Amino acid sequence: MSKKMKKLMAVLLCFAMLFSVTSVAQAKEDTADVKQVSIGFIGWGYTDTLGAAYKEYFDYIAEEFGMNVTLVAGTTQEEHISLAEDLIEAGVDGILAYQVTSPMMKLCDEAGVYLMQFGSPITDEDIQANLDGSDYWLGTSSVDDYKSGQNMVEALYEDGCRNMVVLGVAAGNPCHDLRWNGIMDKAAEYDDMTVIGEYRGGTAAAQEYSDQVQNFVAMYPEMDSIAMTGASSGNLDAVLSALDTVGMTGTVKLATLDVQEGTDTYLEEGSLLFIGGGQHPEVIFLAILMADIIRGSLDMGGEEVSLVGQFINIVGTDGYEEFKKYIMDDFPYYIEELKAVSTSFNPDTSYQELYDLWNSYSLDDVETRHAK
Amino acid sequence: MEKEVILKCTKMCKSFGPTKALVDVDLVVNRGEIRGLIGENGSGKSTISSIVAGVLPYDSGNIEFLGKPHKPADMLEAQQAGISMVVQEAGTIQNLTVMANIFVGKEERFSRGLFLDKKAMKKEAQQILDEIGASHIRADDSIMRYNFEDRKLVEIARALYEKPELLIVDETTTALPHKGREVLYRLMKKQAKENRAVLFISHDMDELMDNCNAITVLRDGRLIATLNEDEMSIPKMRSLMIGREISDEYYRTDLDGSFGEEVVLKAEHLSAGEILEDFSFELHRGEILGIGGLSDCGMHDLGKAVYGAVKLLTGKVIYKDGTEIKSPAAAVSKKMGYVSKNRDIESLILSSSITSNVALPSLNKLQKGVYLSAKDEEALTNEQIKEMSIKCENGAQTVDNLSGGNKQKVVFGKWIGNKAEILILDCPTRGIDIGTKVAMYKLMYRLKQEGRSIIMISEEIPELIGMSDRIIVIRDGKLSGILERSDTLNEHSVIECML
Amino acid sequence: MKTEKVRNFLPLAGLLIVFIAFAVLSGGRNLTSSNLQSIFNQSFFIMLAGICATFVYAHGGIDLSIGGLEGICMLIAVVSMRNIGFVPALILVILTGIVSGILIGGISVYGNIPVFITGLSLQYIYRGILKVATSKALITVPNQYTWLDSWGVKAVVLVAAAAVVGYLFKYTKIGRYEKAIGGNATATTLCGVNAKKYSVLAYVILGIGVGIAGLFAMVRAGGVNPQAGAAYEMDVLIAVVLGGMPLTGGAAARVRCGIIGALLIVVIENGFVLLGADPNLVDGIKGIIFIATVFVTIARRKGQVVN
């Protein structure tokens, strides 16, 4: 192929790629009879259990709710700022991010774009002060990561575990940081429980955890439990296989978060003691609220939104069946239920009702509403 | 003996873009012949051998080999037809064993399903190595255990394994030391005796005279003449190559080996590398000091040692003002220059322009304060292009496309441009065409007359005798003798000191 | 020489093609002045490092530690600015950059360790320090320094950097030496150039650039977490390669490579967000566009990206 041809091919290739991209990402037509709202969502990725769940749920409700949701991902704060900039350029009305910073607020404020944080509440005073100064700051939603950390340790302790190893991702991810602190603090409360080893991995790649587990088993024969801040990206399988390889299945108990396929087997075997998850509806509630506020159908009167939600915990084999049926293989909240608490679709409802619906999240709650 | 034709090229033409490398060349080689092929760089000798060996395609013409039409698509096909070639540069593959190198491309002969029959490979490889007289090379060793000469022998084994009807030796002897050359001569004679043929390309006219039955001379892409045994002579070759009469003396014509009294560089008790031991000498103003010896006697290390380019185990090198030369930077600051024996690897930046190469040592001087003008660089380079008659379009041309001779001119230009007073030359005329050689020798003599000093390390004894005021001979890393320029000095006296 | 001119133009052509493509597909969204500002703001850091990295790439080196270095400089900047002031912060990050350059250059060149490895090792060390220092919580920037985040200030810094580096590269022997070392280090040393010294100098210049970038990055991001600066070294590497820099250095190295490549990367990332592309596809498509662009720029160079 001559050089000119090669060049032409390359250019055509680029165009073909770009066209395919846009065909996938076309903004949906105005099907709902409310004003279209455009929301940008800054997450950390959409291939792990939680991220993928977010994406699926947004795909489910976006069109019905008159929302155009653009999903982007980044890990460092510089990336987040760049993404926020780009989203604003793309013309979003509001941004949901998992790590809000002062410069991000400034960007949004200057552009007249609303901002909310999901995953954890604002902990830094300086940032909070800056947020308070802007009309475009709407508030946060969180699930109690800290409490989940505590729950993990509590469950292990009650099962008889005393010598625990803690595994987590590198510091800097707010959800995992809170879980880590919850684990550590709860363990400290028990006099006869010790943290005999810890590892805060860089990437939380499955292989890393697998290797670390084997190391710990070798170093500490008295080890009887592992608390892990998150199990997606193959970590659950990796850690439990590692235990199996060294013959520790059933002897060493694992407590973690992120329910996924295969959990039932592990729970039955006894190697997995406690697992929590299902917290993905959090961002849906937040997005609906944001859309309501943007449309003007909800007036918070300057007050900050502060949604609090629950993890669903499974201890032993209790509850896994239901979890799978109602939460993994189905959406815990259907569109009609959500529309009922959204002021854009049901003018008689209120913020409090939405708050209560989400706050009362539990296995029993979902079962009651969706009993099949 | 009946002259049976083994190779017949008719009206061979080959061009590289606008450059006509071969024009209507009719070449006939007979069985039992060692045919020499000689010509200046750019004469077409490498082109025609590459075409016959399957490395290059030809534009037009005809080749008949063993009576059949010959148009190989690649070297492997040419090999299968019965033509093998050995070249000048390294042709072995680094991380393989000797036997893997010998059978490269032909591994399927030894394959058994998924595996290679290593035992059979080793046996056959060792056999061919023994046959060519290289039994000191073990077939299952990694090729990296062996030096350049031995690796060349492996390449020769590879070429001869197929028992080629025609063996092409393309300037291989240029880079081979004495022993390797002898092996090659012996193999060529064997090839001829077995009624096969050899096409032998070389710059070295003495070796062509000694080994060939006939010599073909090329010039500017055309075949000028084929001299048979009675007609062969060095002056004849020279004149045919250049196209004009050239006097027999192309080294210095004078016998005056005098030089200035001032000692410009002193080496005291140098030990370096693996061989050089306790070596001392003095270099004077206006002197051409030749350094000779067997190829691994340490003379190449000496060149680097005197230039500050290798770590000295003992001793020091002192410049006339008392400064010790400990690094090339120090040497250059004292107006020294070094022309390496490995031109492409150590003397030139092949991917850069002529200007970049020539101006490099002088940049320090050319920069005024914090400003370095490209015009100054160009001016310096253009001066050298003119002085040295470097054949090129302009200074912006990259060096890698230049012929060997022109490349060497760039290297010299670099040092002359920096106004070097002391030049250390290591095999300065290696791989260069005769026209450039003459120019180099003239240049060296002129520099001497200007009062500059030259250390010339060379493996060519005639060159040492022809050009030096004094010759220092090294044997096993130690000084073996100092010979002075005179008309009675001959090769034997030099060789005596070497052995 | 005509082919030289065409070859030099190609990375720029690639950039223009991609930019125009996104302009068409996004309905002109990427041409608004605020979007152009965003592109500038985002590419600033890579451009700055790309410019300062010219000497390193020209001599055939590579610095894999600058991600960690940027993080460390962000940390030093934020701590200084909270407690001492802006000017000391600036001085400290520059010093940090210089020290880092001496470390990676010195250890590699004088210790004879491949610079690839030294860079990775230093990266781990920097990350480790950063992890420990920020493990408790986010460290944030006081409000009074937000003026640093304006594109005007950054433009001044960038132009100044380009001018200084460009001058050193083209009008002093430093640029010639670095290219010569990249072309053939042995021959260059034999010409009397202290190749080791100049190699280290290249890394020091890069370090200074990264230090300054870190200061600005910190103000822009608003805080430092253990991941700060992650993947920076790869972004810079990809940028200069896309911009036409040969990986083994030598005569074809140019200061503009970092600038064009940085813009290219950012235009593509920005474009994808504007188009609302499915995030899981984005990486894959980015990769393909990169390869296509390299293909276009390399076809002319006959494989000179890797000499």
Written description of the protein model:
Chain C: It is a multi-pass membrane protein. Chain C: The complex is composed of two ATP-binding proteins (LsrA), two transmembrane proteins (LsrC and LsrD) and a solute-binding protein (LsrB). Chain C: Part of the ABC transporter complex LsrABCD involved in autoinducer 2 (AI-2) import. Probably responsible for the translocation of the substrate across the membrane. The complex is a heterotrimer of chains A (372), B (499) and C (307). Chain A has 372 residues and is α/β, with parallel strands linked by helices. Chain A has two domains: 34-143 and 279-315 and 332-370, 3-Layer(aba) Sandwich (Rossmann fold); 145-277, Response regulator (Rossmann fold), CATH 3.40.50. Chain A is built from 15 helices and twelve strands. In chain A, helix 8 (206-219) packs parallel to helix 9 (235-245) and helix 12 crosses helix 15 (363-370). The longest helix of chain A is centred in the first third of the chain and has 22 residues, at 3-24. The N and C termini of chain A lie far apart (63 Å). The model of chain A is unreliable at 24-29 (pLDDT under 50). Chain B has 499 residues and is an alpha/beta fold. Chain B has two domains: 5-242, 3-Layer(aba) Sandwich (Rossmann fold); 263-498, Rossmann fold (3-Layer(aba) Sandwich). Chain B contains 18 helices and 21 strands. A six-stranded mixed sheet of chain B has the order 6-9-10-3-11-12, with helices on both faces. Chain B has a six-stranded mixed sheet with strand order 17-18-19-15-20-21, with helices on both faces. In chain B, strand 1 and strand 2 form a beta hairpin. Chain C is an all-alpha fold. Chain C has a single domain, classed as Orthogonal Bundle (ABC transporter involved in vitamin B12 uptake, BtuC), CATH 1.10.3470. Chain C is built from 13 helices and two strands. Chains in contact: A-C, B-C.
